[in-house]
Amino acid sequence: MSKLPFELLLALRYLRPKRTFVSIITLISILGVALGVAVLIIVISVMSGFDHDLRSKILGFNAHLKVFAQDKPGMSATMKNYPQVMKLVATDKNVRGVAPFVLGQVLVETEPPGTNAQAALTAAPWLRGVDAASEGSVSVLPSSIRLGETNLARALQGQSVVVGADFADMMKLSVGDRLAVSSPNDLKKMRENYGKSNAEIIPPDDYTVTGIFDVGYYEFDSDVIVMSLENAQELYDLDDQAHGLMVTLNDPYQADAVRQQLLQTLGPNFYITTWMDENKAILGALVVEKNVMFILLLCIVAVAALCILSAQITFVIRKTREIGMLKALGATNFQVSTVFLSQSAIIGALGVLAGLGFGILALSYRNEFLEFMRRTTGWELFPESIYGFNELPAIIAPHDIEIVCGISFIIICAIGGILPAILSWLLKPVEALRYE
Question: pTM for the complete prediction?
Answer without folding.
Answer: 0.69
